[in-house]
Structure formats: C-alpha cells, structure tokens
Amino acid sequence: MNDQYKNTDTEHMAGRIRRHIVNMTHRGNSSHVGSGLSISDILSVLYGHTMQLDPEVPRFAERDRFILSKGHAGAAVYAALAERGFFPTERLKDHYQNGSIFSGHVSHKGVPGVELSTGSLGHGLSVGCGMALAAKKQSKTNGVFVVLSDGECDEGSNWEAILFAAHHKLGNLTVAVDYNKIQSLAAVSDTIGLEPFTDKWKAFGWHVADVDGHDHRALKTAFDTARAKPDQPSVVICNTIKGRGVSFMENSVLWHYRSPQGDEYEAAIRELDQYLTKWEG
Questions:
Q1: Gyration radius of the chain's alpha carbons
Q2: Regarding predicted confidence, which is higher, 209 or 3?
Q3: 20 to 30 A Cα–Cα from 265, which one of 21, 62, 113, 259?
Q4: pLDDT tens digits for 70-84?
C-alpha cells in the first residue's frame, strides 16, 4: 500500500477540504455546501488515518471500501480524494461543470476512488452490508465504511440494513452518522425525531461510539476501536455542526441549498484561509 499520505495532519487536511468545497460550490453555483463542511473532519480522518487505500492502485483488492450514502455532499468526497492523491486538486475546478465527471451527487463513473454513485437517500448502507458480507464470506480483511446523514435515518431501508448487519455479525462494517441535527428543510427533531438515537443502535445489536464529530482524536479512536470488533458492526455517532468552519453558515438550514456567491463567498474563503494559516503561514 502507498502510505505517502497516511500520516497527513488530518486537521490540516480537513481545512483544505473545506476550502475546496466552498470553491467548488461557488464555481458550480451548486448546493449542499453546509452538508460537505459538516463531514470534512470525518472524511479527513477516514482518508488520512483510518482507511487502507492506495491512490496509485485505486482498485487493489485489499482496499477498504467507502460509501457516501448522503451523496449530495459529493464535493467533500472529491476533495478528500484529491487531497489523498487520487487525482490532482486542479481537477476539482471541473466540479458541476457541463460534461464533467464530478457531478453534484457523488458518482463513481470515471472518478478513481469512488466505489458507488449515490444520491437517492437510504441505499448506501444496504450496499455496504452486501460488500461487508461478501468480504466476510471470502475471509478478506478489508473494511467497509459508510457515512449516513441523520435525516437519512428516517428511511426505513436503513433500519432493515441495520438489522441485517447485526444478524450476520458484520464486524468489518463501520457506519459514521453525520448527526448535525438539521436536514434539508428543517431540524431533524421537527421532521422525524431520532432520539434516543444511540439506544436504538444498541438495541439493534451494534457497537456504538458517540463522539464530537470535529474532534480528530476522538474520531480516530472510535474508528480504530470499531475495526477491532470482529463479530459486531459498529456505528460512530458523529455530533457535528452543519456548515462547520464558516461562522455564518454554521447551524443554518439556509446553507443546505444556498450557494456561496459574491460577498458571502469572499467572507467564507477569508475565514477558511485564516484557519489554514496555522499550517500554511
């Protein structure tokens, strides 16, 4: 495996991912900037610390599989892949442009490192269960990682998959829930409440970690612990802030669909550049 990027400072990587997301959604005049900013820390830990990947051989057999079930935040995955070295960051300028392979909802077609195209919510975990069961039956060592949104947990198909994974003791399956408490048009609690959320996963037979989804040390420990559970699927409930990293986007449902343009774009980039001066001067 190519470990060139394995020891990347994941907090620095998360900052770069956020700057890419804002630039990409600005150029494409596209949505879901808040959703991407919400999961930037989760992705930087998975791609920069946890997952076994090789950017030079994206399809090598022992690689870990990653599925972004909340496919509307695809800009974040493209940015993480570029930062990990799957393709040049310069190519991110094509995001959401006519004829581009980098569609708004994440696509595997022609994009190295993407395992599954997603967009319609509630499907990614079922596919992840299938990947994990196949690997287990073939005694393979790779893990499967799925990122769900909290609003997506309204989908009944997810709870069927959650039952399935526990029944088949899929210890090679780890789910991260982006629990920012805001879905597309309103708060999760005002749409279909999830609490007591951790108790529900436990009752379904899963190992559960409940962490600050922006705390890199906590995320690394949670994902490493999950990998050590041979006969039990794991979920990491990542308590996040939608729009994290740009003060006027944080905890605002507006930024699920609004695109950063004009003065708002310039203000967002100034904040992110200020954060990155810690590493980039």
A1: 18
A2: 209
A3: 113
A4: 999 999 999 999 999
